[in-house]
Amino acid sequence: MSDPVDLAPELALPPADLQTDSIELMRRFCADWLNKANADVCRQIMSAEYRVEIGGIVLSGLAEYVPATLQQLRQFPGLEIVVHEVISNGNQMALRFTEHGGSTQGNYAAWVGIALFWSDGSVLVRNVTEEDYTSRRRQLGSGVPDALSDALLEPWVTEPRAPNAGAETRVRDWLEAGGLSVRDAQESRLTWDEGAAASVPILNVTSTIVLDLFSAGETVVFRVVESGGYHDGLDLPDQLLGKSGSLSSVGIVRADRTNAITGHVVRDRAGLRRALSRA
Questions:
Q1: Residue-by-residue DSSP string for 50-85
Q2: Is 204 in the same domain as 117?
Q3: Closest alpha carbon to 28 in 150, 122, 141
């Protein structure tokens, strides 16, 4: 094992107005847009070309994003978002959250997600999100909703932190070495999807691609795509074992000076299940 790498000195913080704007954009996204289903807010906090990637779906521009999101919100009248963690380095931000509400079909659910955002300093221009739709499906089917985790008491007073190159390097190296697919030493350090401390390996991973990665202080946010043959964990027929697939995951983690990785990861298990089930 290599010697622990010291954290690189943090860069100068962005201008104060940019720091303030990044947190305000997150507040309005949650409180004014999603919690109120007020589509007028989107034109105020997002660019016309706002691009969203969620669950394997790409929505390009507000003309695609707003109607698609409103359709989802109508399926859960009164849906609310509870924020557990806010990360910002000025123009790159992330939220760890739980959405909860009652479906028009009559049952309730609470499901976690992690969202990555990019801004141009004034409005949001891009978003990558994974939500635990597998957990939502289970809860709606059973009629037994999961309990809500504690909310962050004052999410919108979070202080932005400058990027940290040392933390980014350590997490990138860990990811590219297949860190997400290792289930022994990491079992008690990562929280997976709906709250599991350990995770059944879904794929026999043969490659990992880091698509997005940024930091705020010692906290690192990432999106990766792992590829390999199906192993277990999706309640699929045995004849699909070994079938090739790709799994998108997003995470918010911290790498300490002993190279231990702690944090939360949300995977697009539902998207992988759909892809593997196709003929």
A1: EEEEETTEEEESHHHHHHHHHHHHHHSTT-EEEEEE
A2: no
A3: 122
| pLDDT tier, 279 (very low <50, low <70, confident <90, very high otherwise) | low
DSSP secondary structure letter of residue 196 = B
Dihedral (CA of 124, 29, 101, 253) sign? positive
92 and 172 inside one domain: no
Q: Which residues constitute the domain of residue 238?
A: 165-277
CA atoms within 13 A on the CB side of 35: 13
Structure tokens at 261: 């990785």
133 by DSSP, 3-state: which? helix
Going by C-alpha positions, the residue among 52, 138, 150, 135 that lies closest to residue 96 is: 150
- For residue 119, the SS3 value is strand
Examine the fold and report which residue of 157, 184, 199 is the final residue of a domain before the chain moves on: 157
* Residues 94-127: tens digit of each pLDDT: 999 999 999 998 899 999 999 999 999 999 999 9
Residues 139-182: tens digit of each pLDDT: 999 999 999 989 999 999 998 999 999 999 999 999 999 888 87
CATH number of the domain encompassing residue 269: 3.10.450.50
Instruction: Provide the domain count of the chain.
Output: 2
- Quickly list DSSP for 198-241: S----EEEEEEEEEEEEEETTEEEEEEEEEEEE-SSS---GGGT
User: Rounded to two decimals, what is the model's pTM?
Assistant: 0.90
